Amino acid sequence: MIQRKIYPNVVTYSTLIEGYCLQGRMDEARKAFGQVVESGLQHNIGTYNTLINGYCKIKEMDEAMDLFCEIPQKGFHPDVITYTTMLQGLFLVDRCSAALKLFQKMLVAGNKPDYYTSCVLLDGLCDNGLVEEAMSVYHQLLNRNRNGSHVYGTIIIDRLCKLGRLNVARDLFNDLISKGRHPNVYTYTAIINGLCREGLIDEALELLRKIERNDCLPNTVTYNVILLERENVMRQI
């Protein structure tokens, strides 16, 4: 391109940086990042997000944090992607306390967590056994977005079931119903899956019938969860 006097723009450099990051070639990615300014161009939040993601993937969180702190110094503002990427990286290296502080900073900055941010937060906390902290974040997300009850409820119920915390998941599920936040098919499927994991097939079947009475039609995944459990039971007889 350069030999033909077709000069790269910021999008070209971002693509080049991302390619190096995907291969773990961070020295070359950082060099390409520096060439943006050397070429007379200006960085944008996208180039920062790309390089930060590269460092997070290889668990070099000090480098990622340095870049994150540099963003406002360059006149930019971290966006939801920036915060979510940093959260995922911090959980990856078990820095849960730092992740929670960053989440609070995200909220103060006015960045609204999206579905993926919520997944990263609740997954990261549950994977590290911080169930109480996960529940606290769940309620905080819910208080900020009442319309997100289905999304947040499904995520936390699913994670709790996978951790073997069925009683907590069941209480949360019943709490949703008691407060008039009718679960959708994905929430029902998550709790049914948890019941099946614990061998409570009769309770799972009763919940399946309740779905139909509530005009919330089961989907293929819902039926597959129960069929697989019944098959496992039959195999053991």
What is the CA-atom radius of gyration, in angstroms? 22 Å
Could you please say which CATH topology of the domain at 147-237 applies here? Answer: Serine Threonine Protein Phosphatase 5, Tetratricopeptide repeat
Nearest-integer average pLDDT: 88
Low-confidence parts: none
Strand content: under 5%
Separation of the first and last Cα atoms:
68 Å
Structural class: mainly alpha
Number of separate helices: 13
Let me know the number of strands: 0
Assign the CATH architecture of the domain at 147-237.
Answer: Alpha Horseshoe
What is the highest CATH level, the class of the domain at 147-237? Mainly Alpha
Largest sheet: none
The run of helices and strands is: HHHHHHHHHHHHH
Proportion in helices: over 70%
Element layout with pairings:
Blueprint: H1 10-22, H2 26-38, H3 45-57, H4 61-73, H5 80-92, H6 96-108, H7 115-127, H8 131-144, H9 149-162, H10 166-178, H11 185-197, H12 201-213, H13 220-236
Helix pairs in contact: 1-2, 1-3, 2-3, 3-4, 3-5, 4-5, 5-6, 5-7, 7-8, 7-9, 8-9, 9-10, 9-11, 10-11, 11-12, 11-13, 12-13
